[in-house]
Amino acid sequence: MILSFTCSKSQVKDTIPDSTKMVQVQDSLKKGEQDTTKKETRAERRARKKAEKEREKFYYKDILKDSARLEIERLSRVAWKRSLILPGWGQYTNGGLWWVKVPIIYGGFVGGALTFNYWQWYYKEFLGELQYREEFGQPSNHESLGINSNWTVQGLVQQKDYARRNRDLTILISVGWYGLNVVEAYVDSILKNRWNISNDLSFKLSPTFIPNYAYTPGVGAFSGGGFASPGVKMTITLK
Which residues in 96-118 are b (16+ Cβ under 10 Å) and which e? Predict the structure, then answer.
């Protein structure tokens, strides 16, 4: 009886599942059901970027800026924007030596205008002579470019191109001068409002004499000989 009972218990199926069999779990989402995540529209993207840009004005790396920081940044923006509208206006806003900077700025523009007018006149002189010779086949009555002059057609073309190149270069330099005016207003505002330039560090330039050491043949050593050259000495003082 014990033997038969043991044999009957051994025939009971194990309740532990077989690990070698793959169990398929069906997705809870129905077939054909779309994802609930909504795609961002173009208008929503513009609104989000605008909000992020507005947040950057008041936060720096998730740190709220105080009123002093916001005012300093506003002054820097005002300076270069005013110089962009009217040259010299940003320098006047920054204060300091604006009464020196503004005449220099407008002096550069006046010099550029005069240089442009000169090369434009130079260009038209040679262009007019070339057009006259092409139309009538002979030099014009121009005093220095026409009759009784040694100018050839090739020489006139070279001078015309030279004047045009200098005229265009004057325009580019004037545009660069305008941009330099904007950059100077911004940098000057940054130095005055954001950086603390104290009197604890100073330097001084003064004239001095530097001794000359020359090699003496036969001696095998350097000797001064009492000679010295003038130079400039810079002294840095830390208070």
Answer: eebeebbeebeebeeebeebbee
With beta carbons less than 8 A apart as the criterion, state whether 194 and 72 touch: yes
Judged by DSSP in three states, 204 sits in strand
CA torsion sign for 134, 137, 141, 147 is positive
Q: How far apart are CA 209 and CA 13, in angstroms?
A: 108
Q: Which residues does 138 contact at the CB level (< 8 Å), separation at least 6?
A: none
147 C-beta neighbours (distance < 10 Å), count: 10
Beta-bridge partners for 168 = none
* Cα separation, 121 vs 160, whole angstroms: 10
Measured between alpha carbons, how far is 181 from 166 in angstroms, rounded to an integer?
A: 22
| pLDDT tens-digit series, residues 126-158 | 999 999 999 999 999 998 898 888 899 999 999
Residue type, 163: A
How far apart (Å, rounded) are the C-alpha atoms in residues 195 and 187?
Answer: 11
Helix-helix angle 67-85:42-58, to 10 degrees = 110
CA distance 49 to 159: 55
pTM of the model: 0.57
